[in-house]
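quick one
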Amino acid sequence: MKAEELVKDIPIFIDFIPRGAKIRPGIIPETKKFIVIHNTGNYISYCDAKWHNEYIHKQACSEKPREASWHFSVDDREIWQHIPEEESAWHASDGGYGDGNLYGIGIEICVNGFPGVYSGEEYAAWEKVFLKACDNASILTASLMKKYSIGMEGVKQHFDFAPDRKNCPMQMRYAKENNTFSRENGTIFNRFLKKTKGYLENET
Ligand SMILES: [Zn+2]
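structure w/ zinc ion:
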């Protein structure tokens, strides 16, 4: 499939799951308020953005799909879009912590190749690639923020909406300074916010 759009030289492949699929509810809210950041949780090396596009298409065709859907999958090279961002999807929750599904645009950042630990040579090699994926997600996030007039306060973690306080985006929420997971001190999440802000301010 050919890249149909480019955001700052990153190809975006647009391949929507079919209308009417259970995991594409087709609800269009009056506005979009949030960009909701996730990490995929699939550590196998081939589970990149393209793989997640194939995965969500298979789910869309399944009679009993896993009840999950999101708008974009991002890796260190490509962005794949599965659902028009105007529509709602099932990646956060609509509940006591806010309407993340209804008003959110869900971005899954691929963690393929994650070695399962947060130190050592293997981690360092993986992190280099993962930071590139996060930078690609920053560029995408900044462009969506401009399109939908969303401020920095609208950039959320899945954790923010999850009734079970899910540790997502896990690898971004890892705080190196005290070897724990954190809402406010995630090393890579804070770097992501800083980069996103930078792209937002420099692109105007
Ligand atoms: Zn998530």
